[in-house]
Structure formats: structure tokens, C-alpha cells
């Protein structure tokens, strides 16, 4: 009986396979995803790291020095400053050109001129009072750069009628000055009044002057001695006269 059952089962299997091959009653495929699909769906894609190409690199902004032109092409502040200084220099040069030229010519003249050690130094000055025009003249003689003589002249000019009294007073002052040097060698005074002009002239020869005989009265009366003395350097005399607003010339 067992054998019959076995044979029966085998026949059933053969029939099932025959039916399957002929497409009759073939089992349907499952609707859901297959195992293969399930495995594939769970695979995670590994991202690939690709190096970016043609990406611009940001430029490093460098600080430019003050002397470099700015981005707009204009001059820098330092260049502008130097341009202003240069302009002012040329303006000042042109403005003071006459003075510069005179100074250069003076220096050239001094360089070419031979130093005078023996000669004459003439100094003059003009001034005015309320009524008179006064001219002062000092003529020094010098030898080996040391003064030897002086002629000092004061000339006062006014109206011979309107200023007669003032001119007469000046003449009397000159006369008194002359009286104070009586008996003093080396100093002489000359007075004169003519046609509205009074002249007082003092002549000094330093080699002959005895300073002990020069009275204080003479000095107080307007005597020019001993403002300058024997042996004094002519350069010192010239400097002193210039500081007193005299214009001097050496020859």
C-alpha cells in the first residue's frame, strides 16, 4: 500500500511539473519587490570627492605705499604734497629774483674787488627837522686799516628869512664849540652861515690830538671827539656808522 501511495505522489508531482511547463496554473510572481531589488534599494551611493576646476582664487589685497598712484589713476597724496612744495618754491624764486640777482652781483663784486687797506671812507645821512633840511657827512682817512683823520660836516638849510633865528642859533653853537678847543692841537672847527645855510665843520687829525687837553665842555657842546680814536680799525668805524643809518662808501 505504501508503494501505491508513493507512486501516487510521484504522479502528482509529474503532473504539476507538466502543468507548469505548459503555463497552466503557473504560480503568480509576487507583487512586492524581490530580494534582489530589496538589496539593491538599500545600497547607499558613496559620494565621490571631485576637485573643483576653474574656481577663481580670491586676490589678496595689498596695501599700496603712499607714493603709488591710487586705483583711479590719480596722483597720490605724497606726490600732490611735493607738487605744491615745488610750486611754492618756484613762485618764491621768481618773486625774489631781483633781490637774488642783486645779492649775487654784490658777492661777485666783493670777490673781484681788491681789499682797500689805505684810502677814504665817506659816510652820509640826511634828515629833516620841522623847518630845516639837515645833511651829515663824515669822511675818514685810514692807513693800513687804521683811521688817521676825520672831517665831520653838518649842513642845515632853511629859509633865510623865515628861519633866520634858528639858523643864527646854530651858528652860535658852532662858535662856542670852536672856543672849547682853543689851544688843542689836532682839532679845528669851521663855522659859516650863508644864504640860509649854516655849516659846522670839525676837522680832526688823530696823530696830533692830545686827549688830555680835550675838555668835557667841547664834548658836551657837540664835539665829535672822542667818539672815534687814533688807531681804531676802519672796519669797526664803518660798522658803527652803518648802525647809525649812515650810507658809506670806501675808495
Question: Can you describe this structure in just a few lines?
Answer:
With 251 residues, the chain is an alpha+beta fold. The chain is 37% helix and 22% strand.
List keywords for this structure.
alpha+beta; elongated; disordered N terminus; 251 residues; 6-stranded antiparallel beta sheet
Please provide a written account of the structure:
The protein is an alpha+beta fold and 251 residues long. The chain contains seven helices and six strands. The longest helix is centred in the first third of the chain and has 20 residues. It starts with a helix and ends with a strand. The N terminus is likely disordered.
What is this structure's SSE topology?
Elements (H helix, E strand, L loop, with lengths): L1 H20 L13 H7 L35 H19 L1 H16 L6 E10 L4 E11 L2 E12 L6 H16 L7 E8 L2 E9 L10 H5 L13 H10 L3 E4 L1
Antiparallel strand pairs: 1-2, 1-6, 2-3, 3-5, 4-5
So what's the overall shape? elongated
Q: Roughly what percent helix?
A: 25-40%
- In this structure, how is the largest beta sheet organized? 6 strands, antiparallel
* Computed CA radius of gyration, to the nearest angstrom: 63 Å
Percent strand equals: 15-25%
- Mean pLDDT over the residues: 79
Number of strands: 6
Oligomer: single chain
- pLDDT < 50 runs, ≥5 residues: 1-11, 17-32, 35-45
Structural class: alpha+beta
So how many helices? 7
* Strand ordering within the main sheet: 4-5-3-2-1-6
Distance between the termini: 177 Å
Q: What is the H-and-E element order? A: HHHHEEEHEEHHE
Amino acid at each position: 500500500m505504501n508503494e501505491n501511495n508513493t507512486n501516487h505522489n510521484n504522479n502528482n508531482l509529474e503532473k504539476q511539473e507538466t502543468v507548469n511547463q505548459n503555463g497552466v496554473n503557473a504560480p503568480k510572481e509576487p507583487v512586492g519587490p524581490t530580494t534582489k531589488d530589496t538589496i539593491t534599494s538599500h545600497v547607499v551611493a558613496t559620494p565621490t570627492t571631485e576637485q573643483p576646476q576653474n574656481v577663481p582664487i580670491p586676490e589678496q589685497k595689498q596695501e599700496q605705499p603712499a607714493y603709488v598712484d591710487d586705483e583711479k589713476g590719480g596722483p597720490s597724496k605724497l606726490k600732490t604734497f611735493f607738487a605744491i612744495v615745488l610750486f611754492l618754491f618756484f613762485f618764491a624764486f621768481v618773486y625774489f629774483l631781483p633781490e637774488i640777482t642783486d645779492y649775487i652781483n654784490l658777492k661777485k663784486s666783493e670777490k673781484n674787488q681788491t681789499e682797500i687797506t689805505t684810502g677814504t671812507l665817506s659816510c652820509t645821512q640826511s634828515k629833516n627837522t620841522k623847518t630845516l633840511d639837515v645833511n651829515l657827512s663824515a669822511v675818514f682817512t685810514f692807513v693800513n686799516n687804521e683811521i688817521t683823520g676825520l672831517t665831520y660836516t653838518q649842513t642845515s638849510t632853511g629859509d633865510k628869512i623865515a628861519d633866520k633865528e634858528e639858523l643864527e642859533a646854530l651858528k652860535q653853537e658852532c662858535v662856542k664849540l670852536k672856543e672849547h678847543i682853543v689851544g688843542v692841537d689836532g682839532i679845528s672847527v669851521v663855522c659859516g652861515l650863508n644864504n640860509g645855510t649854516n655849516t659846522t665843520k670839525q676837522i680832526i687829525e688823530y696823530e696830533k690830538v692830545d686827549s688830555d687837553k680835550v675838555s668835557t665842555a667841547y664834548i658836551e657842546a657837540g664835539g665829535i671827539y672822542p667818539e672815534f680814536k687814533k688807531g681804531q680799525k676802519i672796519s669797526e668805524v664803518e660798522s658803527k656808522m652803518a648802525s647809525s643809518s649812515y650810507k658809506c662808501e670806501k675808495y
